[in-house]
Structure formats: C-alpha cells, structure tokens
Amino acid sequence: MRIHWKYYSVLGLLILISLAFSNQFITPLYLEVPKGWPEPKYDFKKNLLTEEGFQLGRHLFYDPILSRDNTISCSSCHLQQTGFTHIDHQLSHGIEGKIGTRNSMALINLAWNKDFMWDGGVNNLEVQAINPITNPNEMDEKLENVILKLQQSDKYKILFTSAFGDDKVTSQRILKALAQFTVMLKSSNSKYDRVLRKEEQYNEREQRGYDLFKINCASCHKEPLFKDDKFEKNGLAIDTTLNDLGRIKITNKKEDYLRFKIPTLRNVQFTFPYMHDGRFKTLTEVVKHYNSLGNDKSLPKELAKPMNLSDNDRVDLVLFLKTLTDTEFLLDKRFSFPKE
Predict the structure, then answer these.
(1) Fewer Cβ within 10 Å of end Cβ, the chain: N or C?
(2) pLDDT tens digit string along 297-317?
(3) Whole-angstrom Cα distance, residue 192 to residue 200?
(4) What is the pLDDT of residues 5-49, one digit of tens each?
(5) Confidence at 2, pLDDT banded by 50, 70, 90
C-alpha cells in the first residue's frame, strides 16, 4: 500500500492546519492505493479527506432526511452487503413507490472513476449526489430543503462542526461530505487480489475461468479494477418500455446510441441484477448473452468475435468472477450504518 501525500497540496495542508486550530479534533484521512493499481482520478486537493468529514458523509448517506418525505436514503438503493447497489428489483425505487428508469450502479472504487451514471451524465463525484436527491422518481427533494432540515438537527450541528469547524450547513459541505464517504469505498481484498499477492492460489476451474476471462472479457473489464472509462454497446436489444438510448442523450452523438458505461466486475457475485436495466438476474445469463453474440458489425470489435464457450467454459468463467468477491469490503463496519 502507498499513501499519496502528493494529493495534498501546500494550500490543502494549510487548510487542514487551519481546521485543526478551529477544531482540535480534526483527523486527516488518506486513501491507500494498492500496489500495482493506477493513480486515482479523484482530485483530493479540492476535497481534503478527514475522519470527521467521512463520518458526516456516512451519516448523510444512511439518512432518509435527504428525501422529500424522509423515507429514502442513499443506502436504500446502495446496500453495503451487495456491493452498494440494490438486488430486490430491476430498477431503482424512490419515494411513494415510484420506479426509476435504470438499475442502480455499484459504488465501488469510485476514486478511479472519471464519469458516473450509466450514461456518464456526471463527471464529478462531488456533484453526483445531486441527481438522486433531486430526481422526482428517487428522493424528489430540493437542496435548500435538505439544508433547512439539517440546520434543525442537533446531531448534524455537532457533525458539521466536527467536520468543518462550525455548524453552518451548505450544499457544498453536504456534497463534499458525501463524496468523502463514497470515495473511501475501496474494494481490494478479494481472492483475486490475494492470488496476485501470492497469498492464495486459484483452484483448477477458477484458473481456467481466469484464462477465459483474459481472452474474452479483459479488453473491456480491465484489471485490476475490472472496469473501463469507456462507454460501449453490449449487444442488448433496446427495452421498448424504457426506451433507454444510452449515452446519446448526453452527447447527442449518433455513435453513442445504446452505449453505456462499462461497470466494475468487483463483487459482481452480489451486485445482481445486471445491465443498465437489470434484465439479467444471474451471472450465467450474462455469460450466455455475451456468448450468443458475434459477427455483428454494429458491435464493438471486442464483442464481434464469437466466444464459442462450452457449458463447462461458462461455469468456469462464472467461478472466476466469484473470486472478485471481497467479503471484507462487504462487511466492513466502517462503511455500515452508523449506530452512534
């Protein structure tokens, strides 16, 4: 592991020192980058991590106070035990039983993301939370109302003072605190990682699955994060009910028709249902879908070549994907509902 002091500019360190004087309990927090991983893309210099900011963000993440009727929290669609996504329905659910238009994405290793949402409609983690908070099918709330509610809470007066030196509640502080919590959601201790560190070994079928993965899947789901910043077509026919056109709605470029973000496969065993519309319930269905593609000029070149996997191949590939499960991350109490 390595701690990146370079993420903290001289100005940033001076700000931390200033905060320390106004609040003697301020505690700097650092994201440890695993050996062999790329540099994070998140700009820590613009949002200096502290334990107090992280804890404020944690409370906000689990608090339905962010929604209009105080019934829906971020965690309602992003459950820790399932890789910070939902599993009980295909599409996200919001207040008053309203149903969204997409399957919620897993919140894993966000420090390495350049864009967010299935269509890349957000390019900054610090503003990402605005979408679900204000979306009429999700939390359906206005930031000014969230501020008023938090200002009336004795608990949040203490938490904001601990994080920022005074109890002033602003939209910027809310969003920065949420980002401090979610940017720390790092998953890096699966069996795959332990094999890389030579602490464990794959069994024979997992190894075959890994070999198949490198041939058929790794060009899009790149190690060690098992994702890509690109948006691609995945061979799915458009859902005629949702009529989700993908990234084209953001860019207005015809080549982005039906292109969606390539998500991480870390903890994929527990992040079902799969795809932007949650149409597949199992990894076997996903593998069968990709195995059925090929010789289609509209697909990206990575999918245009038939996989020709046998039944045993498909099983082995799924067995490897299950080695990406990081139980420590899924059960880490630092990321769970704050009891205090």
Answers:
(1) C
(2) 788 888 888 899 999 999 999
(3) 9
(4) 455 555 555 555 555 555 556 899 999 999 999 999 999 999 999
(5) very low
pLDDT in tens, 175-231: 999 999 999 999 999 999 999 999 999 999 999 999 999 999 999 999 999 999 999
pLDDT per position as a tens digit, 52-82? 999 999 999 999 999 999 999 999 999 999 9
Is the CB of residue 276 less than 8 Å from the CB of residue 91? no
Inter-CA distances, 39 with 3, 147, 228, Å:
11, 34, 14
Q: How far apart are CA 15 and CA 180, in angstroms?
A: 16
Residues in the chain: 340
Closest CA to 241 of 194, 266, 278, 200: 278
Cα three-residue angle 132-135-138, rounded to 5 degrees: 65
Q: How far apart are CA 327 and CA 340, in angstroms?
A: 24
Distance in angstroms (rounded) separating the CA atoms of residues 13 and 2: 19
Written as one letter, the residue type at 326 is D
Q: For the CA atoms of 205, 208, 213, 214, what is the dihedral angle to 10 degrees?
A: 150
Structure tokens at 335: 């990321």
Q: Which of 185, 201, 278 is nearest to 236 (CA)?
A: 278
- Report how far residue 19's alpha carbon sits from residue 112's, in angstroms, rounded to the nearest whole number: 27
Both tokens of 310, joined, read: 């046998």
Residues contacting 196, CB < 8 A, separation 6+: 36, 224
Q: Name the pTM for this structure.
A: 0.91
